[in-house]
Each structure stands twice: as C-alpha cells, then as structure tokens.
Amino acid sequence: MIYIEEHISEPHPSMRKLQELTRAHERSTMLSFYDGTVLLSNMIKFAGAKKCIDVGVFTGYSSLAWALSVPEDGIVVACDISTEYTDIGKPFWKEAGVDHKIDLRIAPAVDTLQSGTYDFIFIDADKESYDTYYEQGLQLLRQGGIIAIDNCFWNGLCMKDSDTSASTEALRQLNAKIKKDSRVTAVMVNVADGTFICLKK
Ligand SMILES: C[S@@+](CC[C@H](N)C(=O)[O-])C[C@H]1O[C@@H](n2cnc3c(N)ncnc32)[C@H](O)[C@@H]1O
After folding, report:
1. What is the CATH classification number for the domain harbouring 11?
2. Average pLDDT in the 58-82 region?
3. CB count, 10 Å around CB of 77?
4. Candidates 123, 126, 150, 171: which one to mutate for ligand 1, based on the most atoms within 8 Å of Cβ?
5. Tens digit of each residue's pLDDT (9 = 90 or more) over 183-196
6. For the chain, how many structural domains are there in total?
7. Strands across the sheet with 195-200, in order?
8. Which SUPFAM superfamilies does the record associate with it (predicted)?
9. Whether residue 43 has pLDDT greater than 80
10. Nearest atom within ligand 1 for CA of residue 54
11. If you take atom 26 of ligand 1, which residue's CA is the nearest one?
12. Is 85 touching ligand 1 by the criterion CB < 6 Å?
C-alpha cells in the first residue's frame, strides 16, 4: 500500500542501493519486500538475537538486513545454492560494514541446517522444501526463538483452491500444519507476501 510505503522508515543506504540493483534483475520478483524486512529486523533487535539463519539469500538483501540488526558479535548463516546471485550482494555487505557477520554457505540448505543453536531463522527459498526447513529449523531454534516464513499467501494462490501446483500445495499444507502445531505460538501477518511468525515454546 502506497500509504505504508510513504511512512515506513528509510532503508539503510546499502539496502536501498542493493534493492534498486536487484529490481533490475531478471529474477527481481524473488527480492524480499522492505516492510517485511523492517518488521523482522525490529524483532531481531528487540529480542537481542545474535545467531540467525537466512534460508534463501538471492542477491543478499535479507541477509544484509539481519546482519545490520544483530550486534557486532552476531552471525547470520546465509544459505543459498547460487554464487551467481549471492555474488551480487557481497559488495553491499562489505560497503555496509557487516560482511564479517555473514557466513555464506553455498550448498542445499537442507545440508546447512544440521547443527548449532539459533535465535532467529528466516525461510525464503524453494517452496516445496519449506516444511523440511521448518522442521530442521525448529530443531536448531532455542526456546523463545523465532522462525519467520515468507510467502504464506503465495501471491494469493494459497487461498485459491483451484491452484494445485506443487509450490502452492506445499505452502498451503505447511500453513495448515503450523495452525495445529503445539510446539509454536504462530501468527500470520499481512506484510510482504504473507509472513508466518512462529515462536518456539
Ligand atoms: C526468494 S529467493 C530469496 C530472496 C532473499 N531472501 C531476499 O531477501 O531477496 C530464493 C533463493 O533460494 C535459493 N534456493 C533455491 N533452492 C535452494 C536450496 N535447495 N537451498 C538453498 N537455497 C536455495 C535460490 O537460489 C534463491 O536465491
């Protein structure tokens, strides 16, 4: 909504530049929305989160947002399979002075999400694996930590029963599963493409 865009805080200059560059990319629709990154950045800061995982980096916009939000001794484990995409973001991580906080792992996220304890996990990669990332993420998340899941609306397709594509079905089933999941307290928020915010009990 334009009214929201007019009133939301200005992005960090490096985030603004990376956003503009990514908007010209042929896969620009994969770029995270700014309102969602501000909401989650505020949550990271409020919670004092230090250890984060970014599942799905693309040009590095979300990783940059989390790295700017954790303290100096914080870390963002950034998971992607494409150096072609992630190489675009690296100069902006450096320019913002937070590249030392980003631990980029080029591998299927399912292999990276194997060990450690984390405060915050953002899921925004291949849709059919979201449930796997959610389950792996819950294992790695500390009690009281948060998993935020992007695309729970999937551009409205999750609400359209006629759409039975694999991605839509995967997201729809995960949405229904989280509603009943006693391991978390979850709220679906109408920002970005729909964001599920799940706090581990
Ligand atoms: C929607 S984009 C991420 C957008 C990013 N969060 C941002 O802020 O702009 C999805 C990313 O997931 C990556 N991806 C796809 N399959 C993956 C996998 N199996 N493991 C890790 N990353 C994967 C893609 O290469 C792509 O960069």
Report:
1. 3.40.50.150
2. 98
3. 22
4. 126
5. 999 999 999 999 99
6. 1
7. 102-106, 75-80, 51-55, 118-123, 141-149, 195-200, 184-189
8. S-adenosyl-L-methionine-dependent methyltransferases (SSF53335)
9. yes
10. 6
11. 58
12. yes
Q: How far is the CA of 125 from the centre of ligand 1 (A)?
A: 4
Torsion angle, alpha carbons of 104, 49, 151, 61, to 10? -40
Ligand 1 atom 18: the closest Cα is on which residue?
108
User: Is the reported ipTM for this assembly greater than 0.90?
Assistant: yes
Query: How many A from CA of 57 to the centre of ligand 1?
Result: 5
Q: Return mean pLDDT, the chain.
A: 97
Residue 37 CA: nearest ligand 1 atom is 8
